[in-house]
Specification:
The protein is an alpha/beta fold. Helices cover about 35% and strands about 25% of the residues.
Length: about 270
């Protein structure tokens, strides 16, 4: 087991961390990390999903994981197929394969520690954890950070390639300064996903964190999710944070809020 040099905000000891390899069920191996509390056994466990075209090693995601580990959670964060250190081709993935990857991660985490009980996701990863929690009986609570109500919202990032996609069924688009090959199946699957309609069946506590000034996923998306969800549901404004929580204080705050909120709903397995 290796030690992650990053420590949680507020001077808490760094979590213990070890690499995990996950079979995605489609013949490819996913890279993941399991972050554990610095001392003692975890009180519960959480599955943490990254944003569209990001990875498990996004600094903000690592800080969220560290804050959850400092609160006693074991946290599994994985790279979706074709991203980060995971195998597979990104252009062959869809929103549905992301959800399947999360469920594969949940099964793997269950073999390491009890759970996962808490599902947490950033941006499109937030939409994915909502869909995954609907299919995971052990999910107790769900939290999202800057998540879209409609997964198809991310097609705004692909506007330069949509014409080629319609014409050729494939295109190379620039996202965040990096080229990504995508296929029409991704767009079709994103457009077919209807999260607000499905939230009525979630029947689990939901926490939505969103920055009012988010320029990537507008605050209207959080409002749509909140209005569609049933109680208990909560909303926390991330003030002037940007979409990627680039300020370390914003990422640490998001993790601490999620941990404090989840403690009300997630049982303490260490008791």
């Amino acid at each position: 087991m290796t030690t992650n040099p990053m420590s949680a905000e507020g001077g808490a000891p760094a979590p213990r961390s070890k690499p995990i390899t996950i079979d995605n069920g489609r013949g490819e191996r996913l890279a993941a990390r399991l972050d554990l509390p610095a001392v003692g056994e975890p009180r519960a466990s959480a599955l943490l999903a990254h944003c569209f075209t990001c990875s498990k090693d996004l600094r903000a995601l690592r800080r969220v994981a560290a804050a959850l580990a400092a609160a006693g959670f074991a946290v599994l964060r994985l790279d979706f197929t074709g991203l980060g250190a995971s195998e597979g081709a990104f252009e062959e993935t869809t929103f549905s394969t992301n959800v399947d990857d999360l469920l594969a991660g949940a099964r793997c985490l269950r073999d390491e520690v009890p759970g996962p009980q808490l599902f947490v996701g950033h941006s499109l990863g937030g939409a994915a954890v909502l869909a995954a929690a609907l299919r995971w009986p052990g999910a107790v609570a769900v939290a999202t950070i800057g998540a879209p109500a409609a997964p198809a919202h991310v097609t705004r990032l692909l506007e330069g390639g949509l014409e080629a996609l319609e014409r050729d069924g494939r295109a190379v688009v620039d996202i965040g300064g990096r080229p990504f090959a995508i296929r029409g199946e991704l767009i079709d699957d994103l457009r077919a996903s209807r999260l607000p309609a499905a939230l009525a069946d979630l029947r689990r506590p939901l926490l939505l964190l969103h920055a009012p000034s988010d320029r990537t996923v507008g605050i209207d998306q959080a409002r749509e999710l909140f209005e569609a969800a049933r109680h208990p549901k909560s909303f926390v404004a991330l003030d002037d944070a940007d979409h990627l929580l680039s300020d370390p204080r914003d990422a640490a705050y998001a993790g601490q809020v999620i941990a404090a909120w989840a403690a009300r709903y997630v049982p303490d397995d260490a008791d």
